[in-house]
Amino acid sequence: MKLRVSAVQYHLHTIQNFQQFADQVTHYVKTAAEFNTEFILFPEFVTTQLLSISETGQGQPIQNLALYTDAYRELFSNLAVEHGVYIIGGTHVTQKGDKLYNVAHLFSPDGHIGEQAKLHLTPTEVEEWGITPGESLRIFETPKGKIAMITCYDIEFPEVVRMARGMGADVVFSPSCTDDRHGFNRVRYTSHARTIENQIYVVTTGTVGSLPTVDFMRGNFGEAAVITPNDVPFPQDGILVKGEINNDMVITADLDLSLLYEVREHGSVTTWRDRRFDLYPDLGKVETETLPTPEWLKADRNVRV
C-alpha cells in the first residue's frame, strides 16, 4: 500500500487578524491538494502566529492561544473535509481546566478530530509557558494504516517511538519547532535513529520565519523531510525528500509501506525483529484509537493501494 504525504515549512510572520492566518493555512492546504496528497503535516506551534495579533504592537501571552481553539479546529477540520485529506494541524496550545497542553491534532476527511498531547516538554515550555505534559500515547488507525503524532522533543526519546511501532504504526508524523541549528539537528538526527530502530517512516517539518513580538518565537530554523530506514530499497542517506532550509515551501512524497514490510523480514539488518525481550521489556502496550473509513475513501477511484 502507498500513501502520499506533504509537509509544510510554515512561514511565521506578524499578522493583523485570524483571517490572515486562515488564508495562509488554506494556501498551503490547496498547494498540497494540487499534488493529490493524502496527509498534510503542519509544524509544531503553528498557531503562535495568532499571538502576533495586537492593537498595541505587543505580542499576546501564550495563555491567549486557548481563546482561538474553536476557530483553529473549525478551520482545519473544514479544510480536511473540503479537500478529502488528513491534516496533522501542527500543534495548538489548548486549555483543560486550569492547565495548558501542547496538543497535536489529526483532522480527518469525515470531520473526526484526534488529539495527542506532547509527552516530553522542553524547559521553555515548562518554565516560561507553564505547559503540562500529556499522560498517554495514542495510535490512530486510518484507511491507509496506523500512524502516530510524536511532537518535536518527543522524537528524541526512543521509548515513545518503540511504543508507537509496537502497536503497529508504520508512519510517524513529527511536527517540530526549533530556533537554531542545534535544536533542528537534534530532531533530525533522532528522527533518523527512530527510522533505523523501528523500520518506519518519519515525516517531519518545522516553522520558519520570525515573530518579533512573540516571546520565544523570534527565531525559527526549520526544514521538512521524509525520512526512511537506511537499507537497500531506500535512499542511501535515508532521506526520501527534503525541503530547503528556512524557505517557505511544501514538500511531497509517496510512501510505499510494502518496502517497510520487506526490510523487516529480509533487510540487510532486521532491527525490529531482532529486539531482545529477554534483556528489556516489550513497549508495545498503548492506548489506540480507530478512525472510521470515510465514505469518500471507500468510493475514491484515486486511492493508491
UniProtKB/TrEMBL annotation:
It comes from the Bacteria. Keywords: Acyltransferase, Transferase. Residues 3-257 form the CN hydrolase domain. InterPro entries: C-N_Hydrolase (IPR003010), C-N_Hydrolase_sf (IPR036526), UPF0012_CS (IPR001110). GO terms for molecular function: acyltransferase activity. Pfam families: CN_hydrolase. The keyword tRNA processing does not apply. PANTHER family: HYDROLASE YHCX, NITRILASE-RELATED. Belongs to the carbon-nitrogen hydrolase superfamily. NIT1/NIT2 family. This is Acyltransferase.
